[in-house]
């Protein structure tokens, strides 16, 4: 591709107001005193092509400035040129445009920075599109080498200079070096279209990462191994015990459900009794309907109050049962709390006991029982040191186990406290409601007694037994009342306590089995880490082989060239 510069124009760029230079595809020399625009001209050309100045800076002042060093507004730095590409004209243009915006509620626009605009062959385009088109036209480094005589020697890295010189003068390729030594043939597959230098970087990075990974694995394996308990309980026996307690819990819960169902049935019977009595009163009122309007109204009012009284009594009985049950649960929780406190004291004492344990050497033989020679002090010291390390490890494990039990005790106590506070709150509400209902019942009874004193009997009480409807209702009431008068055995408090005791046994065994699960997970993780250590070591050995081949390649490269 043949590219020539036809002309370029610079406007409002740094100190240049307006400069047009016509080259007509020829070379020119630009001379001048200091600060007359020579470097600025080069900066403008570089900015047009690559958005940089002549020193490769991307951030530099472009706009003209006043005497105080502040940018002058309402000016648009613009650089444009015309190239001849293979004889065809191509125009490039780039401008820095001011942004003026009008804020919400403001009356005038304010300055809000700059933005660049691009034209490629007079077609407006975005920054990315413009860069891609310039890159397809000419390589940035090539442009700098042919426009800046100092660029190659002072600004290119030595590796890049060497690469360029080798491209010009010629050098043996990696393939030629590999072909010169049959033992290097595997490098072709290993390199996988990468250069020797690139693969050296890849290899060094991989080996560094793998060696760090390998060195990190043994401490992790050792830490997990030391965290395993020295002895493990008979988990199978504990699982059998756990199943037995769960079966007992299911039986107790079944009995508690039956007791609740019985209580519900008794409540239903009381409600039915109230309905029957209400119906009986209505039948009596019907029979006495001819006794007079006033007396009938009084009786209706009394029947209404009696029905309300019965409903209140039923509610009172239910609340009394609820209060009794809450007190029973509080008593049970109090016993559990005392047991947890005792357990906490024992565990705390055990903590102090463990902490107070001291390593004791005891009397040891100082000579060999076989040959009678004195045992070296270093041997005795090493043996004592080993025993001291084992003692400290066992002490830490026992202390950690005991602390875990203390934490579990604390959690159980906190849960018990929350449950107790909830029961007390419910009990307070129930007692208040019971007091309110008892007060209502007292007032209602007073009202009924007042009605009784007002009721007169102008005629003799009818013989209700002559009426079939009355007799049927009366018999039903008598039968239902007889059933309700039978004593009922209340085992709710006993069942609640038994349930709490069984749950504590279940929790104790679950804690042991949870430790089993944790131990199994740690053992599995240890095996995983060992397999990973083996895999990483194998990879390192394989890459060390690659490294050896690269060293042989370096030697062969010297002889080939």
From TrEMBL:
InterPro entries: P-loop_NTPase
Transmembrane segments: none
Residue ranges that the Swiss-Prot or TrEMBL entry lists as coiled coil: 266-343, 389-447, 509-546
UniProt KW Zinc-finger keyword: no
Alphabetic keyword roster: Coiled coil
Descriptive protein name: Rad50/SbcC-type AAA domain-containing protein
Native organism: Tissierella pigra
């Amino acid at each position: 591709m043949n590219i020539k510069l036809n002309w370029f124009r610079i406007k409002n760029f740094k100190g240049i107001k307006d400069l047009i230079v016509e080259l007509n595809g020829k070379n020119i020399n630009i001379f001048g005193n200091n600060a007359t625009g020579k470097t600025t001209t080069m900066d403008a050309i570089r900015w047009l092509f690559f958005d940089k100045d002549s020193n490769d800076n991307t951030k530099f002042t472009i706009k003209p400035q006043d005497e105080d060093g502040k940018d002058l507004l309402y000016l648009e730095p613009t650089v444009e040129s015309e190239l001849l590409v293979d004889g065809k004209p191509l125009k490039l243009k780039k401008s820095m445009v001011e942004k003026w915006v009008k804020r919400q509620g403001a009356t005038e626009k304010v300055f809000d920075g700059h933005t660049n605009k691009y034209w490629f062959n007079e077609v407006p385009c975005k920054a990315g599109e413009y860069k891609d088109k310039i890159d397809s036209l000419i390589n940035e480094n090539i442009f700098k080498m042919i426009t800046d005589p100092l660029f190659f020697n002072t600004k290119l890295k030595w590796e890049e200079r060497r690469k360029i010189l080798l491209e010009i003068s010629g050098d043996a390729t990696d393939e030629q070096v590999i072909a010169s030594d049959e033992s290097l043939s595997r490098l072709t597959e290993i390199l996988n279209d990468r250069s020797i230098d690139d693969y050296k970087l890849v290899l060094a990075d991989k080996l560094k990462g793998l060696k760090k990974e390998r060195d990190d694995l043994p401490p992790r394996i050792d830490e997990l191994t030391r965290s395993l308990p020295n002895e493990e309980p008979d988990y199978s026996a504990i699982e059998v015990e756990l199943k037995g307690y769960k079966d007992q819990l299911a039986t107790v819960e079944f009995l508690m459900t039956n007791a609740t169902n019985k209580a519900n049935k008794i409540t239903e019977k009381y409600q039915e009794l109230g309905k029957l009595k209400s119906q009986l009163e209505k039948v009596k009122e019907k029979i006495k309907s001819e006794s007079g309007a006033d007396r009938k109204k009084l009786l209706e009012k009394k029947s209404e109050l009696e029905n309300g009284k019965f409903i209140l009594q039923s509610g009172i009985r239910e609340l009394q049962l609820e209060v009794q049950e809450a007190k029973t649960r509080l008593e049970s929780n109090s016993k559990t709390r005392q047991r947890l406190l005792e357990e906490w004291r024992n565990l705390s004492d055990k903590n102090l006991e463990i902490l107070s344990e001291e390593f004791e050497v005891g009397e040891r033989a100082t000579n060999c029982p076989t040959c009678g020679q004195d045992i070296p002090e270093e041997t005795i010291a090493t043996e004592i040191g080993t025993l001291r390390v084992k003692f400290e490890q066992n002490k830490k494990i026992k202390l950690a186990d005991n602390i875990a039990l203390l934490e579990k005790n604390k959690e159980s106590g906190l849960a018990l406290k929350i449950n107790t506070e909830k029961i007390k709150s419910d009990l307070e509400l129930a007692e208040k409601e019971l007091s309110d209902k008892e007060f209502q019942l007292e007032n209602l009874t007073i009202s009924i007694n007042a009605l009784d004193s007002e009721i007169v009997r102008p005629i003799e009480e009818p013989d209700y037994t002559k009426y079939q409807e009355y007799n049927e209702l009366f018999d039903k009431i008598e039968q239902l009342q007889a059933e309700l008068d039978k004593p009922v055995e209340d085992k709710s408090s006993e069942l609640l306590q038994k349930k709490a005791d069984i749950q504590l046994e279940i929790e104790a065994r679950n804690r042991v089995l949870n430790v089993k699960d944790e131990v199994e997970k740690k053992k599995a993780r240890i095996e995983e880490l060992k397999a990973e250590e083996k895999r990483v070591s194998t990879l390192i050995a394989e890459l060390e082989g690659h490294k050896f081949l690269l060293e042989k390649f370096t030697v062969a490269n010297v002889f080939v060239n």
